[in-house]
Design goal:
The protein is an all-alpha fold. The protein has 6 helices and no strands.
Length: 85
């Protein structure tokens, strides 16, 4: 949804959480400017996708998939750079 993404103020994109955006469809009100046919198409796609989203009150848990422990290290990041090459 890159075209629709550009229609949202940079500051708003950086501070709005997904939960805040979904609450009362606030994300839709963040869209500014004149929308063309492609932006409207992306809006409709996003609207359908968001209907399938269910958020839970549990805190987020970040897991680094490149280590067995799930913990990020600079070394694991360096090694992940070469995965698949």
């Amino acid at each position: 949804m890159p075209l629709l993404y550009k229609c949202i103020n940079t500051r708003r994109r950086k501070v709005r959480t997904v939960a805040e955006g979904l609450n009362g469809n606030t994300w839709a009100r963040d869209i500014q400017g004149v929308l063309g046919i492609h932006e409207i198409g992306q809006y409709l796609q996003l609207w359908q996708l968001k209907q399938q989203v269910t958020l839970h009150d549990a805190p987020d848990r970040l897991i680094w998939m490149w280590t067995a422990s799930g913990t990020y290290t600079a070394r694991s990041c360096y090694e992940a750079t070469f995965q698949g090459s």
